[in-house]
Amino acid sequence: MNDQKPRCPWCLGFPEYVAYHDEEWGKPVWDDQTHFEFLVLESAQAGLSWATILKKRQGYKDAFANFDYRVVAEFPESYVQELLTNKGIIRNGMKIRAAINNAQRFMEVQKEFGTFAAYIWGFVGGKPIQNELKKGDPSPATSPESDALAKDLKKRGFKFLGSTTIYAHMQATGLVNDHLTDCFRHSEVQNY
């Protein structure tokens, strides 16, 4: 990027990464469909790079009904077989079936809590955790909150959502602000 804004160094690989960092990562999300989108994408990432998933994001959007969990919850096995040939997504049957299962569990959480967002934000007391990471600090992979949330999700039947994946979800959806303190987005995200 030529604008000289100070950014978290992880995002400097390619333009889509920079745009994701500048416009989405760390911004608090209260919308259930967006939470579901990130749960699908982050569970697909397991064992892969986020860059790989970002490059396939449109393919996932197309294949997973624009991340409409109500539609995904009803995907039949015949569509799973079709998805296994779709080059626009990660063609892993366990991950695809996990997304369908998670859509079903997602709606169960909504019935209990009103919204998935209300449920997930409860694990951080309803407001973002503001970390103060500086250059050279190790980036957390998990936290007590992600451990507790992942454990609860597993108990509720969610799949492919361990503590590391859930911590990434928390970072992406603004439950935790892990922008470096010298990144221009750190203070912007604090003010949402």
From TrEMBL:
UniProt KW Aminoacyl-tRNA synthetase keyword: no
Keywords, sorted A to Z: Metal-binding, Zinc
Pfam families per UniProt: Adenine_glyco
Binding site for Zn(2+): C8, H21, H179, C183
Keyword Ubl conjugation: no
One function term, GO molecular function aspect: metal ion binding
InterPro entries named in the record: Adenine_glyco, DNA-3mA_glycosylase, DNA_glycosylase
Source domain of life: Bacteria
GO BP terms: base-excision repair
SUPFAM superfamilies: DNA-glycosylase (SSF48150)
Entry-linked PANTHER family: DNA-3-METHYLADENINE GLYCOSYLASE 1, DNA-3-METHYLADENINE GLYCOSYLASE I
Protein name: DNA-3-methyladenine glycosylase I
Organism: Algoriphagus halophilus
High-level lineage: Bacteria, Pseudomonadati, Bacteroidota, Cytophagia, Cytophagales
